[in-house]
């Protein structure tokens, strides 16, 4: 079954699951009943669910549809596993991964009513803006197979010194640190995408660190180290990949993040295009890949760079 046909079937199922009904409201004892249209969303039973999860969650097929622009390369579209033809790749996200994202959304919404984790309240926007952006970064950091890269047309006219990135396969037990992890983006979705990495979530806020511990426990994710500490306290050259997203005072944090990288490590930034020039000037000794525009965004980009090899100075004749 082709990707387009699969999405049509998913959309049809979702429309069936949304039942229009009417609510009856009595304004007072002397006034007649008034009927107003509303929408009833069907709950689904989940045995053994955590008490922190809501009774309603997003359908995994709908999540897959929303994430499609972020996870499927245009040049090699995804196909349904059931209708897969010889030589075609299976669906990018498995049912288990999609269910984990659905559970993640439930827990995030519940905790967000108690502590400020995200300003986004709409579930569809949570999927596209948080998970979509994080998984888009994951696909470029740990692509499922080698894929050619091209310079985005919108960036060709910029007078910037970039190198064309080479496709890199997931490194076994790659050490990734997500600085200022907050609600877990992009670190946890990257871990869902690449389960072989060793993930460290660094979050100085104690309440947010507690949320991250509950989240990883509910998702039964292992090999995740949650550090309620400041990044400055970590020894240098500790990680193979360091990610930053939506952090305050980015120019101040960048040198700290760079210090955590191994000599061959990669720094992955999910930033606004307006932050590009200041980032380049803050880390002049980095070699940067071409900025990659994030789908469904006018200004968001992914910028990946590595420290340039140090040239020995001085010495004896």
Note down, in words, how this protein is organized.
The protein has eight helices and ten strands. Helices cover 32% and strands 20% of the residues. Helix 2 (60-71) packs across helix 3 (95-112), helix 2 packs across helix 4 (123-141) and helix 4 crosses helix 5 (187-193). The strands form two sheets. Strands 3, 4, 5, 6, 7, 8, 9 and 10 form an eight-stranded mixed beta sheet that branches. Strands 1-2 form a two-stranded antiparallel ribbon. By secondary structure, it is α/β, with parallel strands linked by helices. It has a domain at 145-307: Vaccinia Virus protein VP39 (Rossmann fold, 3-Layer(aba) Sandwich), CATH 3.40.50.
Describe the secondary structure blueprint for this structure.
Blueprint (H helix, E strand, L loop, with lengths): L2 H15 E9 L6 E9 L18 H12 L23 H18 L10 H19 L33 E5 L7 H7 L4 E5 L3 H13 L5 E4 L11 E7 L4 H10 L1 E12 L3 H7 L3 E3 L3 E2 L6 E8 L10
Parallel strand pairs: 3-4, 3-6, 4-5, 6-7
Antiparallel strand pairs: 1-2, 7-10, 8-10, 9-10
What integer value in Å does the Rg equal?
22 Å
Helicity, in percent?
25-40%
Number of strands: 10
Question: How far is the N terminus from the C terminus?
Answer: 69 Å
Q: Roughly what is the average pLDDT, rounded to an integer?
A: 78
Shape: globular
**DSSP summary: helix tally:** 8
Fourth-level CATH superfamily of the domain at 145-307? Vaccinia Virus protein VP39
Low-pLDDT runs: 17-55, 75-88, 146-150, 163-170
């Amino acid at each position: 079954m082709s990707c387009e046909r699969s999405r049509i079937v998913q959309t049809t199922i979702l429309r069936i699951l949304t039942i229009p009904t009417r609510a009856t409201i009595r304004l007072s004892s002397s006034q007649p009943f008034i009927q107003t249209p509303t929408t009833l969303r069907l709950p689904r039973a989940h045995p053994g669910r955590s008490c922190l999860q809501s009774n309603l969650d997003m359908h995994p097929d709908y999540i897959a549809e929303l994430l499609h622009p972020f996870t499927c390369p245009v040049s090699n579209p995804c196909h349904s596993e059931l209708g897969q033809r010889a030589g075609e790749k299976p669906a990018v996200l498995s049912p288990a991964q999609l269910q984990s994202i659905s559970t993640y959304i439930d827990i995030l919404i519940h905790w967000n009513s108690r502590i400020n984790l995200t300003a986004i309240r709409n579930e569809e926007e949570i999927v596209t803006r948080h998970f979509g952006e994080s998984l888009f970064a994951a696909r470029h950091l740990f692509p499922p197979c080698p894929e050619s890269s091209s310079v985005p047309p919108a960036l060709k006219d910029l007078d910037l010194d970039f190198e064309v990135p080479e496709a890199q396969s997931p490194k076994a037990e790659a050490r990734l640190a997500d600085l200022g992890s907050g609600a877990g983006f992009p670190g946890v979705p990257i871990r869902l995408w690449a389960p072989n990495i060793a993930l460290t979530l660094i979050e100085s806020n104690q309440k947010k660190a507690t949320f991250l511990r509950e989240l990883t426990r509910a998702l039964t994710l292992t090999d995740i180290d949650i550090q309620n500490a400041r990044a400055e306290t970590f020894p240098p050259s500790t990680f193979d990949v360091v990610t930053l997203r939506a952090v305050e005072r980015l120019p101040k944090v960048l040198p700290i993040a760079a210090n955590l990288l191994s000599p061959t490590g990669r720094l992955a930034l999910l930033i606004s295009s307006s932050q590009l020039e200041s980032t380049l000037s803050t880390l002049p000794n980095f070699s940067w890949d071409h900025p990659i525009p994030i789908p469904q965004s006018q200004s968001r980009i992914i910028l990946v760079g590595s420290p340039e090899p140090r040239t020995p100075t001085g010495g004896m004749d």
